[in-house]
Write a structure and sequence with these properties.
single chain; mainly alpha; Jann2411-like fold; 60% helix; 8% strand; elongated; binds zinc ion
């Protein structure tokens, strides 16, 4: 996908009047397409890891919702293998936010070594050309694990571990991937975590104001 997008930049350069503006806009497009793919995949990894920890997640429908097109037809055996493989990956995913980049990279390399990564460029379902990391004959669990680890590898190269976080609400341990531009995310997907914490902060400010009137 990167190669194809770069070729498009060169092509447009020859035909357009303002090359600089074009380079800027094409590079933005380039990074946002790749990044949104990575973001979706890492988001799915966080949601699945949280779900597996609380042992209350429908793996199949969660993956289906997040664009894993083989999920509805995956065999029960593949879903069950995937559950235990994600459980195996959980210690790594849970510590990403506290890990040094180098240590995280070494761990992801270990995981990648176990996989049969065989990339190819494909075009299907109205989506433009993009890379699949496993052949169509791969099992569903191999495909998902490879997609997750390749997204993780790409993220570590681009940003290190800085975008991995844990919910800031007092009684929630859920993990998240922070895909916001300015890395402003503090809470998991559950809107209750943010509102509960904001209410608590507000009450704390009010009671401080009552204790020390005139002091803001
Ligand atoms: Zn595809
Ligand atoms: Zn939370």
């Amino acid at each position: 996908m990167r190669v194809l997008a770069t070729r498009k930049v060169l092509f447009d350069l020859r035909t357009l009047r303002n090359p600089l503006e074009l380079i800027t806009s094409s590079l933005m497009e380039l990074s946002s397409t790749t990044q949104s793919e990575i973001r979706l995949t890492l988001d799915a990894l966080m949601v699945l890891t949280n779900g597996i920890r609380q042992s209350g997640i429908d793996l199949r429908s969660t993956l289906d919702d997040r664009g894993f097109s083989r999920a509805p037809d995956a065999s029960a055996a593949a879903i069950s293998r995937l559950t235990s493989r994600l459980e195996g990956l959980r210690p790594l995913v849970e510590t990403l936010s506290e890990m040094e980049d180098v240590a995280a990279m070494a761990r992801v390399n270990e995981e990648l070594n176990e996989l049969d990564v065989r990339p190819s460029i494909v075009e299907h379902g109205g989506v433009g050309p993009h890379i699949h990391w496993t052949p169509a004959t791969a099992t569903f669990d191999d495909q998902v694990m490879t997609d997750m680890l390749m997204a993780l590898a790409q993220e570590l190269c681009d940003n290190g571990t800085i975008r991995f976080g844990r919910c800031g609400a007092d009684d929630c341990d859920d993990l998240f991937y922070d895909g916001t531009r300015n890395r402003a995310r503090r809470f998991c997907d559950d809107p209750k975590c943010a509102s509960r914490t904001h209410t608590a902060d507000h009450r704390a400010r009010q009671s401080r104001a009552r204790e020390a009137p005139g002091k803001k």
